[in-house]
Amino acid sequence: MTDHPVPRYDNLIRTILILAYIAGLIGLQVPAVAPLFKQLTALNLLGTLAALLWYHTDWRPAFTFYIALAVLTGFFVELLGVRTGYVFGGPYAYGAGLGPKLFDIPPIIGANWLLLTYCFGSFFDRFTWPVYLKTAIAAAGMVALDLLVEPVAIRLDFWTWFGHPIPIQNYLGWWLVSVALLSIWYGLPFRKENRLVVLIISLQAFFFIGHQLLYRLSIG
Fold first, then answer.
1. Is there a contact between 78 and 90 (Cβ–Cβ < 8 Å)?
2. Which spans are transmembrane here (predicted)?
3. Does 54 map to a domain?
4. 53: number of Cβ within 10 Å
5. Higher pLDDT residue, 200 or 157?
6. Contact predicate 199/52, CB 8 Å
7. How many degrees, rounded to 5, is the angle at CA 215 between CA 213 and CA 220?
8. What's the structural domain count of the chain?
9. Residue 140: Cβ within 10 Å count
10. If you write DSSP's letter for every residue of the chain in order, what string do you get?
11. Is residue 210 assigned to a domain?
């Protein structure tokens, strides 16, 4: 991997991200302030994406194309899924937890697809595997994260499956959409390394595992 200078304010950015995810974990578990922290969820995702892009080192047109492609693909795939139920295996709808909606879809969801495909694509780019293998495994990593996300997202009113079990097709659909986007990610000519991806993936896992543990403790 090419060595790039550490971005300005590196320690400050990392500290803010860590504190934001810790605050979100705690705040969403405290009924008195949970509504406020729900309103801040979309802002936290946008801040995370902004930090990730601050660390990006290669702003050639191919990368800006990928930004637009991932955001729009993520949004319209979710729109198709909500309107038809076909993509992810059943009827679902977005709640109020992810902020304002356009055509019943929070626009932040497109940014989330960009964030996740970037992070997992960049992380697995460091391995000297064939591109098809990196693509498949990076997409599997996104599915693994979604396994952590789904139960928490339902409790936090990010989205709902209307009381039905989460369909297996949801995870298959996630994998297929991720494979499609990551195939383009790896095929486009820009540098993929980013110093922040390990921290962001770790914070996302920490956030959702933390919620699951706290929910179980409260039940117990």
1. no
2. 12-30, 36-55, 62-82, 102-124, 131-152, 172-189, 196-215
3. yes
4. 16
5. 200
6. no
7. 95
8. 1
9. 17
10. ----PPPTTHHHHHHHHHHHHHHHHHHTTSTTTHHHHHHTHHHHHHHHHHHHHHT-----HHHHHHHHHHHHHHHHHHHHHHHHSTTTTS--EE-STT---BTTB-THHHHHHHHHHHHHHHHHHTS-S-HHHHHHHHHHHHHHHHHHHHHHHHHTTSEE-TTSPPPHHHHHHHHHHHHHHHHHHHHSSS----TTHHHHHHHHHHHHHHHHHHHHHHH-
11. yes
How far apart (Å, rounded) are the C-alpha atoms in residues 209 and 147? 10
* Burial group, residue 61, by CB count within 10 angstroms (0-12, 13-18, 19+): exposed
Position 196 in a domain: yes
Q: What is the pTM of this model?
A: 0.93
Maximal CA-CA distance, the chain: 53
pLDDT band at 118 (very low <50, low <70, confident <90, very high): very high
Q: How many CA atoms lie within 13 A of 157 on its CB side?
A: 10
Q: In the numeric block, which tokens belong to residue 205?
A: 């896992």
Compute the C-alpha angle 174/176/177, nearest 5°: 65
The answer on pLDDT for 1 being more than 70 is no
In a domain, 1, yes or no: no
Task: Tell me the residue range of the domain where 150 lies.
Answer: 10-219
* Rounded to 5°, angle at Cα 198 from 136 and 175: 25
Contact 205, 127 (CB under 8 A): no
